[in-house]
UniProtKB/TrEMBL annotation:
Signal peptide: none annotated. The keyword Membrane applies. InterPro entries: YczE/YyaS-like. Keywords: Membrane, Transmembrane, Transmembrane helix. The chain crosses the membrane at residues 40-59, 66-87, 93-116. It comes from the Bacteria. Pfam families: DUF6198. This is Integral membrane protein. The keyword Transmembrane helix applies.
């Protein structure tokens, strides 16, 4: 439980750092920022609302959320908004670049923490595995199609796409893979409910 909630809080902090870096956002946060600009709501509130809507899409695919799935919807957005209240706007590229890099690395740490806790993946991961099972397409292809759609939609709504978006896309897989193994817990009977079966190294690396 400690590992789960530490990971979710750090995930929200990592998102806030990347946003403050001002060099672009992670794919889903491009959409969240675009919707935030459109609605006037904070990004954390939008993130929570989108997560809840995505979770509803699990129903047709008969996916079963775990404690981590529901906590993901609630905690990350709250943690991100809280972090944005105290994190100052960095001034100049000399500060923005390391802030962004720190956010990307911390995102990998957070991903490893909360997924390795085995209380269930995030809602966006579940919809990808659901589409994979329903269509027979590979998870890699489903994930690519979903994230290209998300980024494009967010960009058209005013979300920020930039160097950090590319850096995150290239780095998050290896980072999360490493920290999943680093934080992996011993297998226990009656563990948390998961959607992506297999060892921690084979789960989808997203919230």
């Amino acid at each position: 439980m400690t590992q789960l909630y530490a990971g979710l809080v750090l995930y929200g902090l990592s998102c806030a750092l990347i946003l403050r870096g001002g060099l672009g956002l992670e794919p889903w946060n491009v959409l969240h920022q675009g919707l935030s600009e459109l609605t006037g709501l904070s990004m954390g509130v939008v993130m929570t609302a989108v997560g809840a809507l995505v979770l509803l899409l699990w129903i047709p695919f008969k996916q079963r959320p775990g404690l981590g799935t529901v906590s993901n919807v609630v905690v990350i957005g709250f943690a991100m908004d809280a972090a944005l209240l105290v994190l100052p706007e960095p001034d100049g590229l000399a500060v923005r670049i390391p802030v962004t890099a720190a956010g990307i690395v911390l995102n990998g740490v957070a991903t490893g923490l909360y997924i390795a806790a085995r209380f269930g993946p995030g809602p966006r991961d579940g919809i990808m595995t659901g589409l994979h099972r329903a269509t027979g397409l590979s998870i890699r292809l489903v994930r690519t199609v979903v994230e290209v759609t998300v980024v494009t939609s967010g960009f058209l709504l005013g979300g920020s796409v930039g160097a950090a978006t590319i850096a995150y896309t290239l780095a998050i897989g290896p980072l999360a893979q490493f920290f999943l193994r680093f934080f992996a817990l011993p297998e226990q009977p009656g563990g948390g409910t998961v959607v992506a079966r297999g060892t921690p190294g084979r789960v989808i690396l997203r919230r």
